[in-house]
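[Protein data]
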Amino acid sequence: MDTLGTPGTRQRRLPALAALTLIPLAAACGSEDAGSSSVGAGARASLSDARWAVDQVTVDGRKKAAPDGAWLRISGDGKVEGNLGCNAFGARADFADGHVSFDGIQSTEMACDGVPAGFEQTLARTLADGDLTTGKDGDKLTLTTKDGDRVALTRSEAAPLKGTEWTVTSPDADGRAHLTFDPKTGQVGGSLGCNRVKATATVRDGSITLGTASTTRMMCDTSLMTAEKKLLGLFDSTVKYRVDGQTLTLTSENGETVRATAGK
């Protein structure tokens, strides 16, 4: 059992997010090879059992940089899990020699501060666009559609929870909110965007029990104070945590989510 600490953010649920109605999209765009049992050893070896951070998507020659937190992982049996930047998604991967296709893509329907739904739609449509040619160069991976659209990814290893400076990306605090879990003191310290914060936390089995937050008492811009209030909402409670590559996700008992990325 370890003792540490951390903050919180909010994702708001939209009543409808048509851009992320992905099951029909995947069915419409799937190639006739989708669902095939043929397996290409090269493509499978290039993608499987690694976490790939999405760097950018290029569609019709226009590049869109990925938000922090967009990634995917394919297990050896073809199960796909990942995140479009805000929304988690799952699918099945079918391999042919040098190609991969993603079938039955499904995602959550949330909206996050600072993550445009347009990017998520573009990434989802590109991944669902039939057979994708795989190209690998070291830790870099490119998935290319038949029309030349591309998803660029980089292999990434999981950052440790402890000792990493986690910069909060949601709620948006202009990059000013950050937390570091100190394994020696059993405390978490950092900034909530305006005020400094320190607290204890007990880490066990994918959860963190946060102590009372000790903070400074400054006033800042309204937007920063709003983000700070959301982060403070995770203290004095137990939150679930998950580290996916360079992304830390904290989920409160009532389902509110905070996202942070590892410092460079």
